[in-house]
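Entry for the shared binder. Reason: the reviewer on the internal report wants the predicted structure included alongside the sequence.
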Amino acid sequence: MPDTARTITATLEKHKISIQEADLSRTFQDFIGIARRLGIQHVWIDSLCIIQDDGADWEKEASQMASVYSNAYLTIAASSSADGNGGCAVWDSERSVGPLDVDCIPVEADFAPATANYKFRVWTRNPSPTGISNDPLQTRGWTLQERELSPRVVNYCKDTIRWECQSLHASLEFPWDDSLSFNGDHRHFDAEQSIFLPMPGVNRSSNLPTDPRTETAVSWMELVVKYTSRRLTKDSDKLPAISGIARTIAERTSDEYFAGLWKSYFQQCLLWQCDRNTEDDLQNTKPLYKTAPSWSWASINGKVSWPLGNLYNYNPDPDPEFIPKILNIHIDPLGFDPYGMLKQGILHIEGKVATVYSLPEAENSAQHRKLRSPLTREEIGHINYDIPLGTDGGKPNIVFLLCCLNEKKREDMDLWTFALALQPVLDVADGIPGTVRRVGLASRILPEFWENNSTWMKLKVC
């Protein structure tokens, strides 16, 4: 993007006086034109309203994104545009013949009285089967919270224009209701979806769950899965780019937020894993810039998920001996925003700890291995490594397991436990010496293993 389409230190004074519309990208020009036709006098464009090369201004404004989007009259999304030159337009050539409205005249017959007028809509093609989920804009990390927090969004897609607000999903083809056009990719803050965050002026159904923190954790996990499937240009944006959603949730639930995890369900939130079931090239890697402590999903590039899907699949009444005690969580922000970039975060935790090892075996991969007992060599579970093992992948890998939770008992199935896989920090580049760091998630461990193979210990995880 040219400097004329951005506010930087060198162009700040000039931009305070005026910005030539011709110097802006096509998308920005279209955006301003739409605002004028709607009679809107003020617009927000990130790259113009934030000084792009001023870290202090960027942090200050980034911390206000929740307020910016949630108070916007309308958010315009160039959903099908791959860059700033795509514009806000519908490009589908098949739209040369649009939908046709047909009035049907009521006729009274012997078997039925006359009915009211009906209007039918006829169109020449099927709507896009993928909705907006495959549009270029939906692959960018920053745009998730733009879409989630805005009261109203107009999505300019390749095949149509799609509308989203807190009570309606619509399109050019179906302006009265078009939920199918979004292919299940609905916003979590909308009235029909938001069973955990009551919106102002929206009445919650009496049969919905009443614990907002439980529903917050469930929906947060779903949002993180979506978010980590998207791309960020800068690793350092990992937490800032979702901070607006986190701030909004914290304000409405009074829950505490720690580097992408919520205090009310902290043990469950710890059990994230790197998702290998992806067909794209979003591989799990270690960020060049340390973005979060190792126990946070934000410490890893690439898609993450939770092995049991959501909280409803975890044991609602877990055995206390399988639940670690959270002694303290210390977060040190890089700046003033506790939801933004971090210097470090240390988790003080106490629980059952056991030593195991993994060996390369025929059915193993660089990231998934069987775990074995160092005494009996019997298989005791599986480990999903956060980062693929490097050149030493052919050697035994010793890890410490910190037992976290047991899953819900299912018919005709063994009861399994989950554990964090940890290793000592030996290099200052990996964390704080004298602490341990997470290297993966262990699963399918029978409860009996912990009886004779574990010790109750206190650990500091960085």
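Summary line for the report: The chain has three domains: 1-91+129-204, 93-122, 309-461.
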